[in-house]
Amino acid sequence: MVKVRAARPAEAEDLTGLVMRSKAHWGYDAAFLAACAPELRIRAGDVTARRVVVAENGRGEVVGVASLEGTPPRAELGLLFVEPSAVGQGVGRLLYRDVLRRAVELGVRRLVIDSDPHATGFYRAMGAVPVAEPAASAASPAAPAAESGGTALVRFEAAPVPLADWARAWTGGGRAVHLGNVGEFNAQFADATLDREQRPAHHYACLAAFYSPYPAALVLPRPVPRGWTELVCRQLGWTGVEVYDGLLDADPGLAEAVRARPALAALLTGAGLPLVPWGRTRAFGRLAGRPWQDGELRYESKSAAHGLFGRILADGGHPGIVLPRQWRVDGRWAAARMLAARTRAGESTVLKSEHGVGGSGTTVLTPARVRAAGGARAVLRRLPRGPLLVEEYVGGAASGGDEGPRDLTYDGFVDEAGRAHEVGGAVMEVADGCYRGATVGPGVVPGWAEKSLTAFGAAVGRELADSGYRGWFDVDFVADGTGRLAPTETNLRLTGPSIAFMVAARLDALRGAGHLVRIADRVELGARLPEAQLDELCAALARGCAELGAVFVPAIPTGAFEPAPWLGVLVAARGREVLDAAEAWVRAEALAVGAMFGPS
Question: What are the φ and ψ backbone dihedral angles of 291, each rounded to 5 degrees?
Answer without folding.
Answer: -60, 135
